Amino acid sequence: MPDSKILAATPDAVAEAAEALRDGRLVAFPTETVYGLGGDATCDRAVAAIFEAKGRPSFNPLIAHVASMEQAESLVELNPDAHRLAARFWPGPLTLVLPRRADSKVSLLASAGLDSIAVRMPDHPVALALIEAAGRPLAAPSANRSGAVSPTTAQHVAACLGERVSLILDGGPCRVGVESTVVDLSGDRPALLRPGGVEVETLEAVLGLVLPHAADSPDAPRSPGQLESHYAPSAPVRLNAQAVEAGWALLGFGPVAATLNLSPSGDLEEAAANLFAMLRAMDRPGLSGIAVSPIPEYGLGLAINDRLRRAAAPRGTS
Ligand code: TXA
Ligand code: MG
Fold first, then answer.
1. Which residues lie below 8 Å from residue 224, measured CB to CB, with a gap of 6+?
2. Ligand 1 atom 29: the closest Cα is on which residue?
3. Its biological function (predicted)?
4. What domains does the chain contain, in order, with CATH numbers?
């Protein structure tokens, strides 16, 4: 079978990728958070191909990526909170779940039949140029098989998806390294669905309220994608490690002697940017497990710990 083609993200390559997208084919592309597996969000066939390539359950909806406020406004109803957050954080690692517009062109497969749509404007010149050249919103989950570690380089995408994606635009390593923060603004009160690249504390300051985490509050809406086991390397993962048993590797944080260190100086931004690449690099055959140093539970630490808890969760059978 033909391997996926990795192309440096030159203007010509972006034009070729946009053509493929307009044809209903899939393209992996860089964003500031992780690489996305993109398809035309308005085309059922392209969206179905994304679910197929990822092995993703079809009840887990996709984010529609846009390049302008106008494009966002054509898909969803923006309320005052949405305008405030978009003005402050877009383009950037923030996804807003908003009521679907009656005339929205986004495929119902992409939103898993919900009456809301998740929208985000990525802060990456290649992603923005691609969406603009394609002339339509792009549905794009992280470009990995469902349940696996998210890709932060073009090489990770090729290793994970292989021939399932024909074209990968290479924009180098992703700057943020963890996925976008997902906030639900479709209900009566805003709720946090996933901690991510925008710090929750900053969002709360802009909104002027404490964001309930959907996972902690029974009445808040649940994000269908927040499955327990995810981001899982093949070796078992143990959190809050103070010591390491024989045969295990230590993923460190702060001034500790470790196999690899997310940030020797204890910088959470650096740790987020290194997280997925280091989990991959440590995941070697013969390793008994990966122990991880404690990570503080604030700022980007919330997103890092969320991903690590899923990596450490008991693995399902599916
Ligand atoms: O940083 C990111 O967000 C990356 C890059 C590629 O943009 N994308 C990404 O997509 O992480 P994905 O599909 O791996 O995660 C999307 C999350 C899932 O947890 C999904 O359940 C949730 O957003 N989601 C999407 N649409 C939703 C909706 N209408 N209501 C509630 N949750 C939704
Ligand atoms: Mg994902």
1. 59, 60, 61, 112
2. 117
3. Required for the formation of a threonylcarbamoyl group on adenosine at position 37 (t(6)A37) in tRNAs that read codons beginning with adenine.
4. 5-216 (3.90.870.10), 237-312 (no CATH)
